Amino acid sequence: MSFAERVRPIVAALAVVAATACATRAEEANDYPTSARAEYVYGCMKANGETRQSIEQCSCSIDVVASIVPYERYVTAETALSMSQVRGNLGTQFRTSEQANTAVNDLRRAQAEAEVRCF
């Protein structure tokens, strides 16, 4: 048995492992539903002008955010931001919650990174 014949199965196995790892990363980066991505881009465009360029930049921005913050964490941050605007005790709970503040800070860091990369 030649060296090439002995190495061929090993190379094939490594190729399968690499392909699986790449597919898993792609799934993780695409765990945001289309409606959440569309809502983000819509809000981003309202804040940055409704031009073709802003579509490109805002689409890039949500892709960067999605690559950094898992969707569950994104939902937590968005909920905390929304609920913190409520007056009274309920809003105070969201403004002072350690978990909510950490999620919001993670989202803000991801958005800052997206701004550097996309705008």
UniProtKB/TrEMBL annotation:
Cleavable signal peptide: 1-23
Keywords: Signal
Entry protein name: Lipoprotein
